[in-house]
């Protein structure tokens, strides 16, 4: 640890720094807690989405082989637009999936297989789930990164800055006390000399 000055100005500076650290730490702890809760919710949402994808695959398993037949799905269904939003969570801007717009053309019932309508609907669901997964992955990434930084700051304050400031204050207080005691002793010696010189 670097040697600190043992002056009254340094004492005040260290006390102000300690007060600042102690005032800021609860905010950081609250942010950390909020990020942990939000991250947990995103993980729950990801798990639900995974379960939904599994259920959909099981449901489609019986007739998925029909997709092997060459069909021009692109002429009946196109992803027209994806609208993303933004949500502020504990100071972190995370993306949200607001809307998915499809451009759909009704297939000719006489020239297309009967399962095509169901197949197109299933394709919409699968693609929407993929978009939702991408957004949740991005949310998880951003919240994890912010939680890591916030945790580092909390640790810095709790384990380094606050103990360091307290120790510096203790050292300065002792040094100032010693200087004050030495001043009193010098004053008594000077007074004793002055009284002794006056008697002679």
Could you walk me through the main structural features you see in this protein, from its secondary elements to its overall organization?
- By secondary structure, this protein is an alpha+beta fold.
- The chain has a domain at 8-70 and 129-194.
- It has three helices and two strands, in the order ααββα.
- The chain has helices spanning 8-61, 73-76, 116-199; strands spanning 77-89, 92-104.
- A two-stranded antiparallel ribbon has the order 1-2.
- Strand 1 (77-89) and strand 2 (92-104) form a beta hairpin.
- Helix 1 packs antiparallel against helix 3.
- The model has no long low-confidence stretch (mean pLDDT 85).
Low-pLDDT segments, ≥5 res: none
Number of helices: 3
**Count of DSSP strands:** 2
Helical residues, percent: over 70%
Class from helix and strand fractions: alpha+beta
The main sheet orders its strands as 1-2
* Overall pLDDT confidence: 85
Strand content: 5-15%
Distance between the termini: 53 Å
Oligomer description: single chain
Biggest sheet overview: 2 strands, antiparallel
Tell me the overall shape.
rod-shaped
Please provide the ordered H/E string of secondary-structure elements. HHEEH
CA gyration radius, whole angstroms: 35 Å
